[in-house]
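Per reviewer request, we include the raw input and output of the structure prediction for the construct analysed in the revised manuscript.
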Amino acid sequence: MTKTRWIPFRWIIALYCFSVAACQNQPSAEDAVQRIEVKDPNDVASIVRNPVSANKPTDTSTVAKIKFEHTEYDFGKVSEGTIVNHSYKFTNIGTVPLVIADVRSTCGCTVPEWTKEPILPNASDEIKVQFKTQGKENEQDKPVTIFANTYPNATEVRLKGFVTKAKATPRKTNAKPKKRKRK
């Protein structure tokens, strides 16, 4: 056979191999889901579940639900240098323990503090937030984002208020002012 007669034959073989490879039985997305066993109860990441599926409606019955008494706190008008403290009280209204994986703010001036222990269904707790106003002036709006085994997995609370410039205080010294010599 000549070289030109082999070219169509090669294409037919390549097309056949490609077709056979493409027809392999691939497991569906539902077949790929495996039951995850919790090996270490202190490993909170192992109990976080995402209830979202492309094929089915969202099932939120197996996630914790966090309900805050209020999600916004207005601290009013304070002078620069004041430290503002506030506690955001919440209840787990879900059917599984609530695990707060992380709480973040947008800058180092806002520091959150929270429990690392699971919060049982119908139990309450709080997230304490401290806002250091030093170097911050004018209108302030500080979001604090809570990441947990909830749906959606991020919940936001806000700390708002106005920071006025601190008044400069004159320095007191024991030194007497120098007298100038008159010419």
